[in-house]
Amino acid sequence: MTTSTLIPALPDTPSAAAAIAHIRSHESEPVANHSVRSYLFARLLADHEGLRPGADYDTDLLFHACVLHDLGTAPASPGRERFEVEGADLAAEFLGDQGYGAKQVDLVWEAIALHSSPGIAERRGVLARLTRRGIAADFGMDADYVTDGQGAAVHLHHPRLDMVTALVDDIVRHAARSPRNAARFTIAGELARERAQNAGPTSLELAAAASRWR
Fold it and tell me: Which CDD domains does the record associate with it (predicted)?
């Protein structure tokens, strides 16, 4: 069995190709790879749970929610709101340009805006739940459903590089652009506070280093 048969294929549509090109032109390679891996882990979770593509969830919307979820951390983002909200806004703009309807856009917006909100995303429908769980799995959290072979295949095709540190750097940089971007007890606010108080790695980096994917 080849590695490519262990994991789902990426969607072969014009909008999917445009989404990949979009994140690779706006995000660093580690962050862009993270976004793609998040989709693959989300699909593996859906398969593990017996969810049926096209019946129980929309694979196309899941792809776009995962792949576009970190656009708010990109240097070209406006820098006036929390990165999750700006990412949701930028994803909505992209999907509107691709011809998606208002209901589809709103579902993706919600999934992205809530992706860092544990306990809330899981109660806002299957798309928001799978998006959050797929993203979390790429940090090594709650990824027991992924076999070693599947994990190796995902990382072979989409290398990890220095993802966690690169993403933390982007979040902290975005947080510094406006006080509204880094409210206390948000991920951005806490990462910015940790970086300001300690020259070493943040708690997120330490947790990721001790996780399954190292």
Answer: HDc
Nearest of 122, 134, 116, 119 to residue 64 by alpha carbon: 134
Q: Which CATH architecture has domain 11-159?
A: Orthogonal Bundle (1.10)
List pLDDT tens digits, range 69-98: 999 999 999 999 999 999 999 999 999 999
Domains of the chain: which residue ranges?
A: 11-159
pLDDT tens-digit map of 133-156:
999 999 999 899 999 999 999 999
| Residues 133, 182: Cα–Cα separation, whole Å | 23
In angstroms, the CA 49 to CA 167 distance is 29
Cα 19 to its chain centre, rounded Å, is 13
- The answer to whether the CB of 197 falls within 8 A of the CB of 172 is no
Q: Which helix (H) or strand (E) holds 110?
A: helix 102-113
**CB proximity list for 24: less than 8 A, separation 6 or greater:** 32
